[in-house]
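Homework help board

Subject: predicted structure for assignment chain

Our instructor gave us this sequence and asked us to write out the predicted structure in token form, then describe one feature. I got the tokens but I'm not sure how to describe them. Can anyone check?
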Amino acid sequence: MKDLVVIVRNVWKYYNYMGNRIPILKGVNMSLYRGDVGGIHGPSGAGKTTLLKILAGLDRPDMGEVIIEGYNLSMLDDEGLAELRTGVVSFIPQDYGLIEEFTVYENIELPLLVSGVPEEERKALINDILNYMGLTDKIKTKVRFLSGGEKQRVAIARALVVTPSLLLADEPTANLDWENAKKVLELFTKINRDFQTTILIVSHDARVLEYTNRRFVLIDGILKEV
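My token output:
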């Protein structure tokens, strides 16, 4: 039996709006096994990004628990959650989260600097991931000069360089035409095959689900597997 990487149990999340407590996630339950590629489809405002941020330890649920690779996130303080993101979980935001004035190399290097990886080891890891992602010719290019598809690949490379068990992608195709979107989705498939990385993608585009083996729908805060 495959290892469970993600366990989400009865997760609720509320936001306060004009004095009212509004539920964003309503008793969400899900699990992902090692090697799964999960896709969550749903409209804007359904709670998709909120759920991803909770899985990444960037936000906390108001009720319920999340367990990633055996770590119960509710038992970790902020420092522990930050450490989780240096090798267990990587999160790719919709806007890529890159520093436009930094080069491709410098952007990919950031999580390794945070983790305290020695310089020679950093160089080797970055060169390997640049080669794997087909970005070697962009190594000294500033991010602001890249196309949307290239920025997405750099964001994926930065997330992958710390060899996470779980890779979370928030609307990775939203800023791309469908031809470039397919290339990004095929890249996720390749990463999953080559590294057995568990991947979870959220998208408002139902076509993304064609590239997953676990398919979920999130509507009005309620998650269902389909």
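Reply (TA_rk): Your tokens look well-formed. For the description, you could write something like this. The first strand starts at residue 4 and ends at 17. That's the kind of observation they're looking for.
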